[in-house]
Amino acid sequence: MRSTPAHRCKGRQTAAEWRWVYNDPRWPLLRDQVLSEEAFCRAGCSRPPTVVDHIRPHRGNEQLAFDRANLQAMCKPCHDAKTARETGFLDGGRRLQRTAKVTLVCGPPCSGKTTWVREHAEPGDLVVDWDALAVALGSPHGHDHPAALRPFIAEARDAVTARLERAHNLRAAWIIATAPRQADRERLAPGADVVVLAVGEDECVRRARRDGRPGDTIEAIESWWRVYRADQTSPAT
After folding, report:
1. CA within 20 to 30 Å of 44's CA: 7, 10, 91, 209, which one?
2. Total-model pTM
3. CATH code of domain 101-233
4. Which CDD domains match (predicted)?
């Protein structure tokens, strides 16, 4: 079975709707903490900082807004330049677009996610594929990756998807993930179109055996379907 698009998340909010973060009583305390801990602008200009910057723009997301690890002290000129890059105003006001259609394609192992994206993407589209990133980062196998590499694969994927929040000239971006839970899908690609390739468990297992996938693939297929079914029947969904 193949379902497309499973849901569409709410689009990006406007800047005015994000202002609540700076009126929250937690913000001045956190701001003072950052400025007291960092003596110089993190952009490397050696000027004293006066502004606390969100490394990854929060867009109203509470977790990103108040995460100390997502904050850095900057001088105002460096901060203004970073904001210009993120909002797309560069080179004397020339604005880059931020209109790429982002599609998250998810499903159990052996459901055909990579093939589906290959059939729908066009040359020059961004494709974020866990297995392809793993191989690029040194994994010796296309589907069985060393545990030590997995944190680096995850950070590489998250860095690329975060870059979509800034100005760019992409036509479309495709993110491939298992993501059996709706919460996983919303975290990986907020606001994206979602395609769930809910290929039946028996068929996925048959493909895994046919293709000689690693021994734990069948367990991963069964696990995906357990989590997916539970998430579909959860009161929270």
Report:
1. 91
2. 0.59
3. 3.40.50.300
4. HNHc
